[in-house]
Each structure stands twice: as structure tokens, then as C-alpha cells.
Specification:
By secondary structure, this protein is α/β, with parallel strands linked by helices. Helix content is about 45%, strand content about 10%. It contains 21 helices and 13 strands. The protein is elongated, with a radius of gyration of 28 Å.
Length: about 500
């Protein structure tokens, strides 16, 4: 199934108009497919003749076969041939029966041969692809993707116009919500709209929060994806001025307006540096700035095999992320994610790694990848080649001004007043400390003071400073290697 700028309804209509006898449509949205087929039938035949419909549970529910039902699928297909009807016939559930009813394959080949000589077409629908080798040459395969923002906007507009005037929402609300609901099915979007309206959630930001929650529940079905619903404030990150500036400057690129203007949006960034310097926290702030959901891709679960073959679990997770777009996809410690645990790339899952590289080049623009790495030197060169990521940021140990910012943030977070502390001296003493180590030190000082039944003070901080050996001392060689590698290769985040 190749990508196309043609709308799904137009592609389906063209395929039917071309006289394709047997069409396999991959979709969960049967109602939406029925509507498309009804419109295509009217366009093709010029009248309101019904689309024949058959299900494994009810048999024929419309068309001449409705009087007889015909629950047996082979008999149902034989009936289609015998009637010589010039019509579109929709057969649901058939692919689930192929293995138990091999005669179905023969029956469908007979239908194909019959309809090749007539104006009618048969459409087989199923949520997944299950085409037996015996039908691979006869079947025309189409995928019905989830509705885009334009289609959702039209549907929501119609729903809104049908409401009492006092219940209707604003045009801005409809525009923002239709863009945000991309990744949901028509039915899910319709149900969510009615829920929002009934609960009188007319504030746009509140509505978007509910939509993100709905997407989170959807993605919970994909066991290798985790939806992060907590919001992270970029102003609560000390230092990283260049990285934060880059994120803020691209705030408007993932809006409906930017999409309408066909603005190129960034594909992703890779943040590298020693552990504890704020890479993961920075990744988690991006969706908060851009107003997008945050999804964490758990590669450990994918590689474990607990959710099926790693390659299958990977494809399912990526497809689910695409369906949830626009979204930020967070991949933490990407060097471990693909199994590159030593200096040889052969230690990784090369099938998934190759798939990832291809996907980064061809993925939808509204899936932004925020990746972090501690050991960039073990990543294959293909990972960091120009074009995979828009920006490589090197997150070094925070310098004195950044350490002061980090101290101020965490002292405030622990209920202290930064003005009561000599931040300049503390920052000087903690030269070579990571952001995580500074946070740990402030927390430890607060715990000590709480144990003594008092507020923490400057002396508590000084006491805990000398209880911590910073990572810059224990991992100085690795840090120096990172600095050497990143020189002229990456942008400094601070």
C-alpha cells in the first residue's frame, strides 16, 4: 500500500469506476466504508441502488439476498454470481474464515471471473491483511486510513450544526479539536464530540486535554507504548538555553495553520550527553510547549518478545503512533533501544534498526521523534547521518549560570527561598555536577532537615555536597570522549 495524496474516498471511487472486480479494504471503520461505497455506487450507476451487504453473523442485510440471508459464506458468494446483479457487494468477515473454509478462496475466484465481465464489484473488508496466495493476483488492496483533519472538521461541523443553538461550539473550537482528534476513528471522534458537548467543555485547552486522554486510552491497547499525561514545564529546566530556544521557536509548526501552509516540520532531534544532564526531562517538555501528546516507545518490551515477534511488535507500535498523530514519540537511551550494547553494530536487531532508519526518512511529518543517547559512540553512523534527525544536541555538564538556575528551581521545589542561599558559592563548589546530582543533593538536604524537625538551610546543602561523588569524576573518560565526538558534529544545548 503506497502513499498517495488522493483521498481514500476518491481512490476507492476510482478503483470501482475502473471496474476492479475484487477489492480488499483494510479498515476498522465499517460504517465509514459503507458511506463511501454508497456514494461510489451512486456515482458509478447514477441511481440509488443499494450496496449489498453480508456479515458472518447476519448473512445478507441489504440487497436481493436480504430475504434469504444465507449465513453460509460459500452459498452467499454463489448467490452473488447467480443473480447477475450490477451492483457493489460488501462482504465483511470473510478473511477471518479463510483458514477454516478453504472453499472460500475458490468461490472468490469464481466471483472475480464472473464480475470481470459485468459492471459490478465485490468489496471484502477486514481490520487486517489476510490475503491467501490463491487470491494474491486477483485482489486489489486498499487501506482506508483514519480520517484526516479536513474530514473530521466536516463531520464535526455537521454534528455542531445539528445541535440547539445554545449548545453549539465556536468555529475556533471545531478547528482546533478536528486537528487534535486526528488518530481517532470517525466513531471515536463523534462519541468524544458528544461527550465534550454534553459536559459543556467549551474551553479549547480543556477539550484538547480530554482528547489527549482519549488517545492515551486508545494507545494503552498497544502494549509497547506508554502515554505520558503529566505536563512538564520547560521553564523548570535549568540551563539548556539553546535547546529550549530551538523548541520554543518551533512551537507553531505543529498547528493547523502550519499544516495548511504546507510548512516543513522537523522530523526529530537527538540529545546526547552523560546520564543526569536533563535530556529525558527536556524531551518530556517538548509536547507541553507544542500542545501535543507524548508517547514513550518502550523498546525493551518490543525486544523482549513478550508481545510477539519483535519485528511485529515494532510495526504495530509505529503504526499506532502514526494513528495517534500529531504526537511526540520519545525514545529514551536509543543506543540501548536497538540492542547496540557494545562497539559492534551486529549486536543489535538489524531488521528493526533498518526499519527505523527507513521510517525516519518516510514517516508522517506530524510524528516528531525526541530521542536521547548516553553513548553516542556505539551508535551506527547511519543513525546520526544528516537527514535522520533535524538537530543533534550535545548536553554537557551545566556551567555556573545553569547550575544557579538548577539550584533555584529545586530549592523552590522543596519549599525553600533561593534568596536565603548563597547560590554563587554553591554553584562554584558543585563545578562538574549534573542536573540530577544537584536535584538529589537538595532533596537529601530537605530530608535531613525534616528528620530533625526543621526547615532545610544552607548548611544542609553544604553537608550533602560533600557526601556525593559527582559523575564527572567517576566517568571523566566517557565524558571527554563525548566532548571530542560532539565537537563540530552537534550543537551545544547550553
Amino acid at each position: 500500500m503506497s502513499e498517495s495524496n488522493v483521498k481514500p474516498s476518491e481512490q476507492l471511487s476510482r478503483t470501482l469506476a475502473a471496474g476492479s472486480p475484487l477489492i480488499y479494504v483494510v479498515t476498522w471503520e465499517e460504517e465509514r466504508l459503507e458511506q463511501m461505497l454508497a456514494a461510489a455506487s451512486k456515482e458509478r450507476f447514477g441511481d440509488d441502488r443499494p450496496v449489498w451487504q453480508w456479515t458472518a453473523a447476519l448473512g445478507f442485510t441489504s440487497g436481493p439476498g436480504a430475504e434469504r440471508q444465507l449465513l453460509d459464506p460459500v452459498e452467499a458468494l454463489s448467490f452473488v454470481v447467480s443473480e447477475n446483479a450490477d451492483a457493489i457487494c460488501l462482504m465483511k468477515d470473510l478473511p477471518a474464515l479463510f483458514e477454516s473454509r478453504p472453499a472460500l478462496i475458490r468461490a472468490l475466484r469464481d466471483v472475480y471471473d464472473h464480475l470481470s465481465l459485468r459492471p459490478g464489484s465485490m468489496v471484502v473488508s477486514h481490520p487486517s491483511i489476510n490475503i491467501p496466495p490463491g487470491l494474491s493476483k486477483e485482489v486489489y488492496l486498499l487501506e482506508l486510513p483514519l480520517p484526516d483533519a479536513e474530514e473530521l472538521r466536516g463531520m464535526l461541523g455537521s454534528l455542531n450544526s445539528g445541535l440547539d443553538e445554545q449548545k453549539r461550539v465556536s468555529e475556533e473550537w471545531l478547528d482546533r479539536v478536528s486537528y487534535a482528534t486526528q488518530g481517532l476513528s470517525s466513531n471515536e471522534t463523534r462519541d468524544l464530540f458528544h461527550q465534550l458537548v454534553s459536559e459543556k467543555i467549551v474551553d479549547v485547552d480543556a477539550a484538547l486535554a480530554e482528547i489527549n486522554l482519549a488517545k492515551a486510552q486508545l494507545l494503552m491497547k498497544e502494549n509497547c507504548l506508554e502515554v505520558i499525561t503529566k505536563k512538564y514545564d520547560i521553564d523548570k529546566i535549568g540551563g539548556l538555553s539553546k535547546l529550549k530556544s530551538w523548541v520554543i521557536s518551533r512551537q507553531k509548526l505543529f498547528t493547523k495553520e502550519a499544516q495548511a501552509a504546507r510548512i516543513d516540520v522537523p522530523a526529530g532531534i537527538l540529545m546526547m550527553g552523560v546520564s543526569g544532564c536533563g535530556k529525558s526531562l527536556a524531551a518530556k517538555t517538548i509536547p507541553s510547549v507544542w500542545g501535543l501528546p507524548l508517547i514513550r516507545l518502550d523498546m525493551n518490551k518490543i525486544m523482549s518478545g513478550g508481545w510477539g515477534a519483535p519485528e511485529v511488535a515494532w510495526e504495530r507500535a509505529i503504526r499506532a503512533a502514526e494513528n495517534a498523530a500529531p504526537v511526540v514519540l520519545w525514545i529514551d537511551e536509543i543506543e540501548n533501544s536497538f540492542g547496540f550494547l557494545n562497539d559492534s553494530a551486529t549486536s543489535g536487531n538489524m531488521t528493526i534498526f533498518s526499519s527505523f532508519l527507513t521510517w525516519m526518512q518516510e514517516k508522517p511529518a506530524n510524528v516528531f521523534v525526541a530521542a536521547t543517547a548516553n553513548r553516542i559512540e556505539i551508535l551506527p553512523p547511519e543513525m546520526i547521518r544528516k537527514g535522520r534527525f533535524d538537530q543533534l544536541f550535545f548536553v554537557d555538564l551545566p556551567e555556573a549560570p545553569a547550575r544557579i538556575d538548577i539550584l533555584r528551581i529545586h530549592i523552590l521545589g522543596q519549599g525553600g527561598d533561593p534568596e536565603e542561599f548563597d547560590l554563587q558559592h554553591l554553584a562554584k563548589v558543585m563545578n562538574g555536577w549534573t542536573a540530577a546530582e544537584i536535584e538529589q543533593m537538595v532533596r537529601a538536604a530537605r530530608i535531613d532537615a525534616f528528620t530533625d524537625g526543621r526547615e532545610f538551610n544552607y548548611d544542609d546543602l553544604i553537608h550533602n555536597i560533600y557526601r556525593i561523588v559527582p559523575l564527572s569524576k567517576t566517568m571523566s573518560e566517557q565524558l571527554n570522549a563525548l566532548r571530542i565526538w560532539s565537537h563540530n558534529r552537534a550543537t551545544k544545548a547550553h
